Amino acid sequence: MSEKGCIKCGSQAASTKEVAMTGTGLSKMFDIQHNQFIVVYCEDCGYSEFYNKQSSAGSNLLDLFFG
Hints:
It is a single chain. This protein is 19% helix and 31% strand. The chain is of the alpha+beta class. The radius of gyration is 14 Å and the shape is elongated.
């Protein structure tokens, strides 16, 4: 069985952060950050993947990132 890790560097070290971003149109003009994401990133090379916060639980994201 092969070990899984970051698709860029193979590292097993990953962390998560929550971020919010503006959309387009009026939300951008008024700086309304209604798009919320969880970012899973490799601590070694910085490769990142964004996941819509409403679509999955944070505890499952590390499994998705590492396969």
